[in-house]
Specification:
Elements lengths: L5 H8 L3 H8 L7 H13 L6 H8 L4 E6 L5 H14 L5 E6 L4 H11 L6 E4 L9 H8 L4 E4 L10 E4 L1 H14 L5 E5 L5 H16 L9 E3 L2 H13 L6 E4 L2 H13 L9 E5 L13 E4 L2 H17 L5 H4 L1 E3 L2 E3 L9
Parallel strand pairs: 1-2, 1-3, 3-4, 4-5, 5-11, 6-7, 6-8, 8-9, 9-10
Antiparallel strand pairs: 10-12
Helix pairs in contact: 1-2, 5-12, 8-9, 10-11
């Protein structure tokens, strides 16, 4: 079958290639009659545009880079769906890059973007990220960046977050109201803004209940390190009676360890987690969660990025928004008689 391209359409209609191209893009410069002729012929010949060729002519990739720590976490899966709900209708493509919580890998990915492979970046920082020079370098080259969920407080770019301090406070307050007095805070990083905000909320709730925050009840580290630290906590004579997991995977780790150590939930220990896990209600017992608006956060990040791409003037402060999370109470924190 003959390859149908812009040149073929133009020759058949006795029009210039630029006129045909503009007609296909619904340009106001082209008359409705000419647009109709072009579209009718394109349809009859099964013309399929080449987005890569057109992007080279425009010096645009029509591609958005999405940089996240992982995809196994349900939050990021939902966020990607939110991003694509905006990206795809605009004729753009998404490329997903995983940092696996590595700052070095994150830096390498952003360095590759400097070639113009993407028009913009939506990203959530790795657990090791404690500086953002690599982000600032990319942004200085004219490639806009929007951060979501895992942000950097001092960054001069649009940032989409949830109310982490308030949610950490609310989660801890809930455990205290259910009778807990030794509440442990579980985290994968002590450098991320979201972890620190949630930790501060946890400490505020303890202080208001006149419960002293104890360093031995605050766990930070990789999943492997955290697993052993949680195991040590649960085997301690002074084990916690409540666990607040700031990330979903640590809640699952806690469930597995409680089963291994014959500790019943919620009788021996109550668990609450920041999680968007669809099966949270199906766990045994069902998991109490702080559910983040993951889809809406991804959508908001994409909207902010396109405003940056489409505007001559862009104020990142005005595009930085906070979306509230929701406490969903289930059996893992049920008050025992």
């Amino acid at each position: 079958m003959e390859n149908v391209n812009l040149k073929k359409l133009a020759q058949t209609l006795n029009l210039s290639v630029s006129t045909v191209s503009k007609a296909l893009q619904d340009s106001h410069e082209i008359s409705q009659e000419t647009k109709r002729r072009v579209l009718d012929l394109a349809k009859s010949l099964n013309y399929v545009p080449n987005p890569y060729a057109s992007s080279l002519r425009r010096k645009k990739s029509k591609t958005i880079g999405v940089v996240i720590p992982e995809v196994t976490d349900s939050f990021f899966s939902l966020a990607i769906k939110g991003i694509e709900s905006i990206v795809q209708p605009k004729g753009y493509h998404t490329l997903i890059y995983l940092t696996y919580e590595s700052l070095a890998r994150e830096q390498t990915i952003l360095q590759e973007f400097q070639s113009g492979r993407v028009d913009g970046v939506i990203m959530s920082l790795s657990g090791e990220t404690n500086r953002i020079g690599h982000l600032e370098t990319l942004q200085a080259k004219g490639i806009p960046i929007v951060l979501f969920d895992r942000i950097f407080d001092e960054a001069t770019m649009a940032q989409i977050t949830t109310n982490d301090f308030e949610s950490g406070y609310q989660a801890t307050r809930h455990l205290i109201e259910q009778g807990c007095r030794r509440v442990a805070f579980l985290s994968l990083s002590d450098s991320l803004s979201i972890s620190n905000q949630r930790l501060e909320g946890y400490k505020r709730a303890l202080a208001e209940s006149q419960i002293a925050a104890q360093d031995d009840l605050i766990v930070n580290g990789s999943r492997e390190i955290s697993q052993e630290l949680i195991r040590t906590l649960l085997q301690s004579p002074q084990r916690p009676d409540g666990l607040l997991a700031s990330v979903e995977k640590l809640a699952i780790t806690a469930y597995q360890l409680c089963e291994e150590l014959n500790l019943t939930i919620p009788d021996a220990v109550k668990i609450i987690a920041f999680s968007n896990l669809e099966t949270a209600s199906l766990l045994n017992p069902s998991l109490t969660t702080i559910t983040q608006p993951a889809f809406d956060m991804g959508k908001a990040a994409a909207i902010a990025l396109f405003r940056n791409l489409e505007k001559t003037y862009f104020d990142p402060q005005k595009e930085s928004i906070v979306l509230p999370s929701l406490l969903v109470c289930r059996n893992s924190t049920r008050r025992c008689n």
